[in-house]
Structures are given as structure tokens and as C-alpha cells.
Amino acid sequence: MQKIVVDILTPKQARFFYVVGKKLEKNGFQVFYTTRNYSEVINMLKIIKIKAKSIGEFGENKLKKAIFSSERQLKYILFLNKIKPELVLSFGSPEAARASFGLGIPHIMANDSPHSRFVMKLTLPLSEHLFSPKCIPKSEWEQFGISSSKITNYNAIDQVVWLKNIYFNKIKESIEKGKFDDFSLVYRPEEFMASYIESSIPQSFLILKKAIKKFYEKNKIKINLTILARYSMSSFYKPIGKYVNLKVPNSSVDGIQLLLNSRVFVGFGGTMNGEAALLGVRSITLSKESNFVEKFLIKKKLLNKAQSPSELLKLIEDEMFLSSREIRKKRKYALKILTHMEDPSEVIVSHLHKILL
After folding, report:
1. Which of 129, 211, 308, 317 has the fewest beta carbons closer than 10 A?
2. Residue 163: which residues within 8 A CB-CB, separation 6 or more?
């Protein structure tokens, strides 16, 4: 039986590769999962029931990232040398790419984030193939050292993988019921410790806090706010409790189910913005720059952009006072778009099946 190693570094990758891995196993491959010691990923892996070998640590600043990455690479080389897989699959893992390249094992990537330039420089030149959404021009990837002939596009965004394969029936049931929690908002801060951002606090929260305060002062209503905190920083958000009914879960939760019951999602253009958009939830991004996936969703009228507390306030107010009938109509529109999108997991598995079997 041919072996494939899959490296999982974020909760999004866990959901994405859970589906891909299951389909690879059905196609006769033996799949080994690896991860690193990072609480958000470990919790998500427990939720979706993936057993992964933990190799290395997550670094919270430049020095730790450099040290931990070097240490992880050595450990990854030893792991791959023991398993001896036919290929390694990741979402842009520098350690997996460099270790597999050094051992002469093909490294294959799926990715939708060319804006993560440091990661791309360390992975794409060492990769045999890349799978990415069609809305991202191939030229965006070629600048990092991979030829267009090694790029396969799918007519979808990555979130389609788990929304279609895991949650599709739940999405339809939610629309049929037509019950959505009043004055409910979910917020997910940016990855402010990531290499392409690096900040000590989530800057987006400062905008959200001002908008929510204005909403409370104007409407005398407390929004039911759920914050999906990053990096164990739940205490940072407590002061906003004066203006909202606040929940900050201590561990990973089922974000999709949370979104299905909510009116608004506020994020920074990341994974959950895409999930909310395809669920028909009012999805608002506070990111200053627009990546290609954002532009695609905005063009489809599934995503909104706010750059100030006043812009954010207007978008929140517009949604909070919509009738259930109007919300249901929006969600049916999003479901139609989701239904017609290609399944990226099928594209990836089909390609790997052809080259390995």
C-alpha cells in the first residue's frame, strides 16, 4: 500500500485534509497525519477525530519561529525517513517541504494564500505541484518559483471541501427551519502572530469594539457576541462585556454550527469569512488589503468590507433588523453558489490517484 504523509498546521487545514485524507484512504492509500504542538490545531483534530503525530512547536515571534522551524525540520526528516512515503502533502508547511525535498520525496501543496510571502518562498520552489482556487491568477504563484504547468486550479474556494462533504445537509436543514438567533454576532480575530502580520494584539478588535459600543448606545440592545479567540487571549476581550452578552469559548467549537445560528460574522478575511459567506451569513472583513479570495466573494455579493467603526456599524445594523424571511432568501442564494462550485478534494484526489497508481 502506497503511503502519503499529510502535514496539518491550522484548524482550517485539519478540516480540509480530513476530507482529502478520507478520500485518499478510500482510493487505496495509507495516510499518515502530522501536526505541531499548537492548541487550536490539537483541539480541532480532537473534534474531527484525526490521530496525528505531533512534531515540533508553534513559534510566537521571529526568533522562536526560526528556532522551532529548524528543530521541527530535523525531526520531520527523521520521521519521513522512517515512514518512507511516496509523497508529502501540505498547505505550505516549510518543514514538510524542505524535509521531503532533502530526502527526494515529492512535496505537493494546496494553498489559497499567496499573500503569505515568507511561507511561499520557503515552499513553492520545492514543490512538485500546487492546487489552488481559480480566482487566484497563476502569475501570483509563478513569482515564487513554480511553473504554471505545475499548477492545477479548481473552480471553488477551499471552504467548499468541508461545507459540501460534511455540512451540506445541516446547511439545508438550517435554511428550511428559518430560525436565526436575534442580535447574534461571531468575531474571529486575525492571526496577529503570523509571519505576515506580527502584532501583539488583534487590531481588528479595536474597530469592532467601537462599532459595538455605538450600536448599544444607539439601540439600547446588547448584541450576543461570541469571540473565537486566538493564542489563549480570552481575558483581553472581557472589557467589552459592558456592551454585549459575551461568550469566549475556552476550546475549539464547531464554528459552522455557530455561524448557522448567527446573524453576522466579523473577521479579517480569513477562513471563517469564507465559511460565513458561503452560508449566506452577513460576512464582514476588516482587512485593509483584499486578497483574491476576498475579491471573488465580494464580486459574488457574499462578503462585505468595512474600514472604520462607522462602516462596520452600518453593516451590523442592516443585518440585525432583517426579517427571518429576508435572511432565508440570502442563505438560499449562497447555497445555490455553493452547490455549483467544484469540490477541490475531488480534484486533488483524482490527480494524486493518476500519478501514483
Report:
1. 308
2. 171, 256, 275, 278, 279, 338
Tens-place pLDDT, residues 106-151: 999 999 999 999 999 999 999 999 999 999 999 999 999 999 999 9
Does residue 91 contact residue 110 with C-beta atoms inside 8 Å?
yes
DSSP-assigned letter for residue 354 = H
| Residue 43 to residue 39: CA distance in whole angstroms | 6
Q: Which CATH superfamily hosts domain 169-340?
A: Glycogen Phosphorylase B; (3.40.50.2000)
Pairing type for strands 303-305 and 282-285 reads parallel
For residues 164 and 337, the answer to whether their CB atoms sit within 8 Å is no
Angle at 214 between CA 210 and CA 219, to 5 degrees: 150
CB 29 within 8 A of CB 174: no
How far is Cα 279 from Cα 271, in angstroms, rounded to an integer? 13
Mean pLDDT score, 179-192: 88
Distance between CA atoms of residues 78 and 89, nearest Å: 17
Predicted TM-score of the model (pTM): 0.93
> Half-sphere exposure of residue 198, counting CA atoms within 13 Å on the CB side?
11
Instruction: Dump pLDDT digits (tens) for 8-31.
Output: 999 999 999 999 999 999 999 999
